[in-house]
Amino acid sequence: MPCYAARMLFRRSARASLILSLLLGFSGIALQGRVVRLETLSQQPVLEGRSFGAAGAYERVAGKAYFAVEVTHAGNRRIVDLEKAVNLKNGMVAFEADFVVIQPKDPQRGNGSLLLEVPNRGKSRLVGLVDGGDWNLAHDAGDAWLLRRGYSIAAVGWQWDATGPNTLHLFAPIARESGQTIHGLLRGDFMPSHDMDEVPLGHFMTGEIGGTEYPVSDATDSRNQLTVRDSRQATRSLVPRGSWRFAHKVNGKLVDSNRFIYLDSGFRKGKLYEYVYAVADPVVAGLGFAAIRDFASYAKWGDATLHRAARIYGEGISQNGRFLRDYLYQGFNTDESGRMVLDGVLAHVAGAGRGSFNYRFAQPSRDAQPTSSIYFPTDIFPFTDEPENDTAEHQRAGLLDSAKTRGSVPKIFFSNTSYEYWGRAAALIHSTADGTGDMPIAPNVRIYHFTGLQHFPGPFPPAAGTADLHGQQAESPLPIRYFWRAMITNMDAWVRSGKAPPESSYPKIAEANLVPISEYAFPAIPHVHRPYEASQAYRISFGPDWQKGILAWQPPKVGAPFATLVPQVDRDGNERDGVRLPAIQVPLATYTGWNLRDPAIGAERERVAFEGSYLPFPKTRAERQTAHDPRPSIEERYKDRSDYMERYRKAVDKLVQDRWILEEDRAALLQRGELEWDAATR
User: Fold this and answer.
1) Tens-place pLDDT, residues 12-41
2) Which are the contacts of 37, defined by CB distance < 8 A and separation ≥ 6?
3) Spatial contact of 628 and 600, defined as CB atoms under 8 Å apart
4) How many other C-beta atoms can be found within 10 angstroms of the C-beta atom of residue 210?
5) Out of 1.10.10.10, 3.40.50.410, 3.40.50.1820, 3.40.50.150, which CATH number does the structure's domain 3-174+284-497 have?
């Protein structure tokens, strides 16, 4: 049994524990499913008590939250296998989760708004992303924007199999059927960037394991299999069972292991391998939704609390943006007392996805990449916030149907970069399932497309990725930080005072800015290979009960794909619509939402996960003509550096005026423009 799942029942600590109250004043309202208590394991001043503007000094508190949920409550019935939890007692199931809170020491000096981060693979990243500096404020607070503004920030563990140091975990019970072990099948896949003899069972992601998943329960099960193919569209070839085993090398000797696969001939770079194997004792993984819900509820209405959270904004990036989309879809934004817990949701770079968060034998780290995590329950219908039709399957549904029924629809930002249109089927969140028209957007929803950015910002000056992310081109280096600060500010104003944020900005079919790949008008840039496809969402089935959370068929049956559309580009290859940084409005390069794998890591026709491309313009007319580059050179576009910066300044001012960028970040963005010019012209 995985170590995290084995530590699922309430354990009484020998340490004297302080019942920490967070973020709200006493309400006198009795809670049902709830945080039973919070155990403080550390409570320290941030940067030795340094003062941050009007908010004053901050503290960082870390510990464990202990929960109990009522099995028969309507709000919990969607948690798969909850009624089978081994620690079910008196109709309640107990579980626990790690948490961390960064908050003003004096609650009266905070702004009353809490950013509740859903940590990515157990890692808290929001403070480092928005403010710069350390993720945990151990030595460096960056420019401390969040702290100076008086926000409280919390993160709660929700993933049962998260790995690595400084990781926030969910400790959930396993499930059994009438006391008997539950068995099943699990699947994984990967494409190595270098040859290797063995791989651990788990989700490979940027060279690391994002989730350990389950050990094999029976190495002799006839259903265990390994296949190989060239791409996700290619036909699988079965690897003979006698040529691989569940084992790994220890001090040069091959030993049996229930957490590794060893292939006699070795796993070859650029090949897509997929394994299926027998597993047992599923963790009740859907309790991760309850952990976020009930922690937020406690932060608002828990008794004897130190701080009051008047407003809570759920924040999630990538995996956790998908988590928040699924959280809303499954109706978890209403606590057991019927109250809405998250006032706002900022789901970033989630594309059209949800995820493997609330299934039997859930694999929460699995996403949907060009060469791994293929045909998992990630990009599945429905995609749009308003109800949509899938005529092929005779179904109609919307992402927010449950939240509407429960009266708990928050204010929502769905934001994506250029990569998600190529790698995460993002067009489906605002187009019809058949790709023939644009879908209406609900009044409480904004959809923002940040043009030219990739899934996470690449290095600046631009450079190619390494290892699993080694692409043929340099990564897109465009920053997201300034947009994040404006989004948080706009969300806070929207919830706090009703001040509407900027209108949605994304490419539309009606304006010919969202098109099939066959109509993608990318210029013929010398030595640049364009992708032959984009990631698709499919109609899939994991068996007769998979909509109830039971994934019996591995791999699943794959049906027809949904429509695949990508943003149209201008003559430079830059996307025409969306929220555009000055680097796109006053360009020195082409920024794409795709990057192909370098031949050094194999499969050179396939796209690299997460990356876009930076393709600099020729510096001079002569250079352009020699290279036969169709894009005008920098020399032909701008008189000199001053001319460029004057145009850049006007673009920045318009972004500030339209509230995409904060006035206080204007100087930093102008400095960025100078650095971009220097990097492109040196």
Assistant:
1) 332 323 323 333 332 333 334 589 999 999
2) 17, 19, 65, 66
3) no
4) 26
5) 3.40.50.1820
